[in-house]
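Need tokens for this chain, all 130 residues.
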Amino acid sequence: MTSEVKCLSTTMTLREAVILLLTNRISGAPVVDHLQQVVSVVSETDLLKLAGLGMNTTIGQCLSSLARAPQLITLQRHNTFEQAYKIFMTKPIHRIIVVDSNNRIQGVLTRGNVLRILVDLKRDRKSRSA
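Here are the structure tokens for all 130 residues:
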């Protein structure tokens, strides 16, 4: 899980969102409101689709076109690896937002994070059997 999460705000423009994603070499980011609660997630695909509205349009103006809480798939720190793995295997998503009980962001778990854990698990099993 990535704990230092780059977030978008509802007041950012689409242009600012694109710059944040490109600068940080990430393919998506959670959107937080003024209380730092997760309200949506924006991906590169979303930004490509929304670009027709104009790059100075704010993310807040686009929320009706984006996945929103409570439809967002989130986890909390106490959830297990198996629960996260199952979500990635059954849902067409690339990241799961990890939130606290107040829906404030704690981190992001990506498919890449899960793959790294799987490789480490396999490596641990091999070293134990050697």
